[in-house]
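Model the whole thing, not chain by chain.
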Amino acid sequence: MTFSTPLAASVQGDGLAGSAEAAPLIELNDISHSFGTRPDFAARLAISLKLGKPAARVQAVDGVSLVVRRGEVLGLVGESGCGKSTLGRIVAGIVSPTSGSVSWRGKDLKTLSSSARREAKLRVQMIFQNPYASLNPRRKAADIVGEAPRVHGLVEGGLGVFVDEQFRRAGLDPALKHRFPHQFSGGQRQRIGIARALAVQPEFLVCDEAVAALDVSIQAQILNLFMDLRERLNLTYLFISHDLGVVEHISDRVAIMYLGRIVEEAPAEEIFARANHPYTQALLAEVPRLETTKRSFAAIKGELPSPLSPPNGCHFHPRCPHTMPRCRIEVPRMKLVAAGHKSACHLNDAAS
Amino acid sequence: MNAAVLEVRDLRTHFGAAKAVDGVSFSVARGEVLGLVGESGSGKSVTGFSIIGLVDPPGTIVGGQIVFDGRDITHSSREEMRALRGRRMAMIFQDPMMTLNPVLRIDTQMIEAVQAHENVSRADARARARDALGMVGIPSPDERLRAYPHQFSGGMRQRVVIAIALLHRPDFIIADEPTTALDVTIQAQILAEMQELVAQNNTSLIWITHDLAVVSRLADRIAVMYAGRIVESGSVSDVLGSPWHPYTAGLIGSVPSRNRRGERLHQIPGMTPNVARLPTGCAFAPRCARADAMCAQAVPLFTAGMREHRCVHPLPEFRK
């Protein structure tokens, strides 16, 4: 390939074999993020004189700790509004968390020098859900893919050759590179998004609902591409999706998120075989699967509560079939329930 | 099952050169749920719009017949269709925000829908609207009637739309991907309610979707569309259990849960064809591993009992 940077060299240098496999690539430590406006002077004055109420803030992510090890695919599952996209953006370095720390290869991003931080951020790239919205409609595909590596000085030799190489890797015909995004199909457009992300030689990809907008047959093609690329480039993924079927297929480990908190985390086989948290169990029960006999749907009641005023205690208690008085007061902590399997539910205390 | 409520015969809806729907035939019996499955551009939505008489120009029905309750409605006038629509047949769309008027309260919209077809007092119409909201599982319907569409969550909004569709207890409902934009738990709730309501009222339902898994649990029969044609139809257990058409088999194979975890998914190569430049023969042939010279000729419809398919080389391992 036609690129070479000190960091890329060092990646190959410290060997992708054996012992380094389990090292955490990204570590989130008690990450919280809330959205809302900061009160200005007049509002602060009004609040202090008890004439106004503080502006409502949405706690999108609430005290999340998560480790993604090198070479693994971590699936992050949750319903809309649960904060999974915000968490993905924090991992990708697009959003900086309100509190908590993000470590890259064991080093807190905040302690890194600005150039080292920029390098670290470049190693993490993001692929978005909507390939229509995430590509500039007025730029040619070649410019979209070639811009970041050119700006970051990753291209040695001709940019044209480099872009062709990126196109081929994402399964696109380089002959199409002078077209505009609207001249591609949905699947091809998602491939441009993938080519753009991979053009800066990342080690870590955050895929935010990357196949949700695609047709079934195209979705299969893109998922296969993700799996091929993982093998060829030794990529690590944070794969965010609401589709448990997709997550089950591609992930090594799965984390389930509900209203800003991770409620369960386990190896993929384990979680699909022995889900511990009532919310995970409900989710798994409701995933429509291909069946050849007609069956009625059994739904859990209620809706996702507003993140503006989440319920006290365990966020899931208003919808949970096993609610106890304790669930309304106390937030359950993540506890080990089996090897590598963590769950945040008070039922686990009652059982032991 | 008794007589067909709806019969579509050789329907052709073209948009200029683009043959969006090109020779589609099927029927739906009373109380039956038909799953119309296909990928984007397969013509499944245009089929739905054609039936209910809402094809926008330049699209026109250039051939075929739509027979509803024994009456040919293919070329009914706008007034005749208006009298049918909402009262005898209804359609539910994917995006409830497109169906609901954002600046009118829910009660205004629902009362209007009742009074459009029946000469009832405002109070009666309102009572009817409230009952409909209660039926689809909206809590405290009296208060919710006074709300605006934006004050509902996505799932609740879709429930409102379903309630409007059910106002006149139509004989026949077309649902165009109504749960695709919703969360898994909300989707399950709405599917459960639809299933119950349809069974209670003996309503016929066409459920248009790209999601085989949803259809597999909801529908009695399934019709798979590809490039404007139905390539295979039959009972859900037959078609999904042992598909005859290679496209159906490919679709089923692409579903992640049908594959071994972590292994490459079975994928259909290539893309859906441009419906403006369809070949005379099988439109799926360029993507099909079983295709040969015979596939370049027009493919007749093969019938076996309740099953139909359009493939000259159906999958032999399933062919009994």
